[in-house]
Amino acid sequence: MTNTANIFLPTGSIPVAPSVRSDRVEPPFPWVGLMTLSAAVFLSVTSEMLPTGLLPEMSRSLGVAQSQIGLLVSWFAFTVVLTSAPVAIWTRRFPRHGLIIVVLIIFAVSNILTAIAPTYEFVVAARVLGGVAHGLFWSVVGAYAGHLVPKAQIGRAVSITVAGGTLAFVFGVPLGTAGGHLLGWRLSFVVLAGLMLVGAVLVWKFLPPVARYSTGAAASAHAPKTRQPRDATVPAVVLICIITGITMIGHYSFYTYIAPFLLDGLNIDPELLAPMLFAYGVAGAVGLLLVGTVFGPRPSLGLILGLAVSALSVSLLAAFTATLPVALIAFVLWGMAFGMLPPLMQTRMLHAASPRIRDTASAFYTTAFNAGIGGGALLGAVLIDSVGLERVPLVYVGLLVVALVLVVVTDLMTQRAQARQAASA
After folding, report:
1. What is the pLDDT of residue 351?
2. Segment 228-262, tens digit of pLDDT
3. By the number of CB atoms within 10 A of the CB, which of 26, 27, 251, 367 ranks highest?
């Protein structure tokens, strides 16, 4: 899954003109701009995950095993991990508005190259290009939303922006899968490329620009250097990043190959694949809603329940492949439970980290998330070729159990760290 975490460039802030009157009227909430940004997120995540729905068709067309098509997700995610930080630093002086437009155009080129690819290796190269764009995209989007609104409205603005990622699983991937089944997988990528260009035009027209980031070097170059004491919350943050990586590895070892599992394991009709992915995405949206309404203030409880229910539902899905009604209920329940996990893990990390290391902790979280996506697709490919697809859910459940144990350990570490900081304050 692609990562909808907020990534902020560590290069300073947007200059803001000082207010001359404390009672001035707040500007209207930038709904149009934020919805445009959310649409760009929708297209980015759809581009990242579309091969999971078109895996059988791409496999037959390119003459490679389905595990090789699944590795396209790994190539994409590992490219994000390796290139996002250096590319973000290299482009930190470029206007943010123009960067988003350029990234969407690169996405369009990547998808066109995928559509016309004569060989598997050509598709890999096209996906690597898309991964570079994806990493830069996420280095800009989170901060961009925050700079469009006053500080009190940042949470609301970011929520609207990242909702596009959830909608990509609800509509983008299922619709792309349905189109690929009807008209061929290559046309799905062509249509997505066209939508990327439309998105670039919408960003140019409706997204308000913001000033580029300043380096802040002048202000800090001659500042006295003092040795900061070791932050007591670092171990808990590291554990949460490990939990995130383990959970994402397990999830994408299975979800990357969900199309062949549903077709061959459950023996569903190919025409039902897109509706099932749609149902999974809707269930994930319900899980996201539960986070916002119930578990947001209780991230530890929600995380434990999400991991436990995910493990239970995947176990039922693997055990009742011959009983379709039970398997379908388990599939939807899995979608809802997993929909809770990414936002809860990020919230848990922010609760655990002290304010001094929160930005750094967010960067490590994002790296763990994307490394888990790529590592999971790679692990799934190895398992399919060695022990078979039917064993992959069992490995996933085992990793969820490990993550669940580590959540409990992290809670204990966080409580002790907070007690030590309170005692030294």
Report:
1. 72
2. 567 777 888 888 889 999 999 999 999 989 989 99
3. 251
